[in-house]
């Protein structure tokens, strides 16, 4: 089999960054009043800035597919002619612009410079970006493709606007006592961000500069054991099953805000760290990898609230990672869902700090029904 390498990484962030103080100017006020829980939620998640593909009036400035295409074009900024050589486009998102056609072909539609290539659209939430990456990696690995692009993008700001929500839940005492209770619809308003990232995966490293050899990508799902935790376009019933938007009347869809994002906060607190990172411990053991071998650890965090919990888990399980090895840009770009891991790796890759032989461990937990993806890269 061929080897596979990430040779270029690019990102696209729409418009200017939005500070914590400006958020409600873009997302609006529920019932015309400022949020009373916003400050508490932001204190827990630690985010200072994020990006929205809309104006303060709620007018879209970019589609999801357009942002993904702009990230892809960014891969070829120095050599525009190379975009014609792409032989695979693997595109992921949890927030497509439409149900049909697929997100991937819509991205391809914004790339008239390319040829008629294979296009795939992995679905999911945060792990979807890694699934798109793995498809590109495997296609190059088996020799089927030579120049594969994977990308991930999100445009969730329209569903975070105030008109999409029911009356805001005001439970400040509970929020202070138990931060998990904030991880509901209101929490998600202050966390999510828009943007896109892209990888170029090839069968040979760059002749000049660095590349990232893809050592392995491993994933797992606990959906056979756990009910849904985060969902959209459905309502959660008392027995834990989801009732699809297709099975509601139009009136009920609006009344129950079926298309807002919701989270089962109790499940999130109990499960998100221990399930996935127990699996990572087993993967590292099976692959013969020690945390001592890792130079950079890039975890996708929905909130800095989970940073200590992950750190504590590693320490308690005998696989500690010193904090100086951790890297995340959550504070400056927010949670961009499936695209977050692309944006973190882009900053590290283009920082000028990487040295050949260093290893980078990626970790992407997804709370929707408890899925996880992990990847080890070597700088070469």
Structure description:
The protein is an alpha+beta fold and 380 residues long. It folds into 2 domains: 1-228 and 264-380, Peroxisomal Thiolase, Chain A, domain 1 (3-Layer(aba) Sandwich), CATH 3.40.47; 230-255, no CATH class. Helices cover 30% and strands 20% of the residues. The protein has helices at residues 23-27, 38-45, 64-74, 103-109, 128-141, 157-160, 172-177, 185-189, 250-255, 265-287, 307-316, 330-333, 340-349; strands at residues 5-12, 18-19, 49-50, 88-92, 118-120, 147-154, 195-202, 212-221, 230-231, 234-236, 242-244, 262-263, 296-299, 359-366, 371-379. The strands form 4 sheets. It has a 9-stranded mixed sheet, with helices on both faces. Strands 2-3 form a two-stranded antiparallel sheet. The chain has a two-stranded antiparallel sheet with strand order 9-12. Helix 3 crosses helix 4 (103-109).
Helix coverage percent: 25-40%
**CATH homology superfamily name of the largest domain:** Thiolase/Chalcone synthase
Profile the largest sheet.
9 strands, mixed
Q: Assign the structural class, choosing from mainly alpha, mainly beta, alpha/beta, alpha+beta, or little secondary structure.
A: alpha+beta
Low-confidence stretches: 166-183
Number of domains: 2
Q: Report mean pLDDT, rounded to a whole number.
A: 91
Tell me the CATH topology of the largest domain: Peroxisomal Thiolase, Chain A, domain 1
What is the N-to-C succession of helices and strands? EEHHEHEHEHEHHHEEEEEHEHEHHHEE
Which band does the percent of strand residues land in? Answer: 15-25%
Q: Biggest sheet: strands side by side, in what order?
A: 5-4-6-7-1-8-15-14-13
CATH class of the largest domain: Alpha Beta
* Number of H- or I-type helical stretches: 13
Shape: globular
Q: Over all CA atoms, what is the radius of gyration?
A: 20 Å
- Supply the CATH architecture of the largest domain: 3-Layer(aba) Sandwich
**Based on DSSP secondary structure assignment, what is the total number of beta strands?**
15
GO molecular function: acyltransferase activity
Pfam families: ACP_syn_III_C
Keywords: Acyltransferase, Transferase
Domain Beta-ketoacyl-[acyl-carrier-protein] synthase III C-terminal: 284-363
């Amino acid at each position: 089999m061929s080897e596979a390498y990430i040779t270029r990484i690019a990102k696209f962030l729409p418009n200017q960054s939005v500070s914590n103080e400006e958020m409600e100017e873009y997302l609006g006020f529920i019932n015309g009043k400022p949020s009373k829980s916003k400050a508490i939620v932001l204190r827990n998640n630690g985010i200072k800035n994020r990006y929205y593909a809309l104006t303060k009036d709620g007018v879209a400035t970019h589609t999801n597919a357009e942002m993904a295409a702009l990230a892809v074009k960014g891969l070829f900024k120095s050599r525009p002619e190379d975009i014609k050589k792409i032989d695979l486009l693997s595109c992921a998102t949890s927030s497509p612009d439409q149900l049909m056609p697929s997100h991937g072909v819509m991205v391809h539609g914004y790339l008239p410079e390319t040829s008629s290539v294979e296009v795939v659209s992995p679905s999911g939430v945060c792990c979807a970006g890694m699934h798109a990456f793995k498809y590109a990696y495997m296609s190059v690995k088996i020799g089927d493709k030579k120049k594969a692009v994977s990308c991930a993008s999100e445009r969730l700001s329209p569903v975070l606007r105030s008109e999409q929500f029911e009356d805001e839940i005001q439970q400040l005492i509970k929020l202070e006592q138990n931060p998990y209770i904030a991880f509901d619809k209101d929490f998600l308003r202050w966390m999510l961000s828009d943007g896109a990232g892209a990888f170029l995966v090839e069968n040979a490293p760059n002749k000049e500069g660095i590349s990232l050899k893809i050592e392995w990508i491993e994933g797992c799902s606990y959906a056979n054991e756990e009910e849904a935790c985060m969902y959209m376009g459905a309502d959660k019933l008392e027995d834990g099953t989801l009732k699809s938007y297709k099975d509601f009347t139009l009136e009920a869809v609006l009344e129950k805000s079926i298309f807002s994002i919701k989270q089962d906060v109790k499940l999130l607190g109990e499960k998100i760290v221990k399930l996935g990172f127990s699996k990572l411990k087993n993967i590292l053991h099976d692959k013969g990898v020690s945390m001592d071998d890792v130079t950079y650890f890039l975890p996708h965090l929905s909130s800095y609230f989970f940073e200590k919990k992950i750190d504590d888990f590693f320490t308690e399980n005998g696989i500690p990672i010193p904090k100086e090895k951790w890297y995340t840009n959550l504070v400056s770009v927010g949670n961009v869902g499936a695209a977050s891991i692309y944006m973190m790796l882009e900053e590290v890759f283009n920082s000028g700090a990487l040295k050949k032989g260093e290893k980078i461990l990626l970790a992407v937990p997804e709370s929707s029904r408890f899925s996880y993806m992990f990847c080890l890269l070597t700088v070469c």
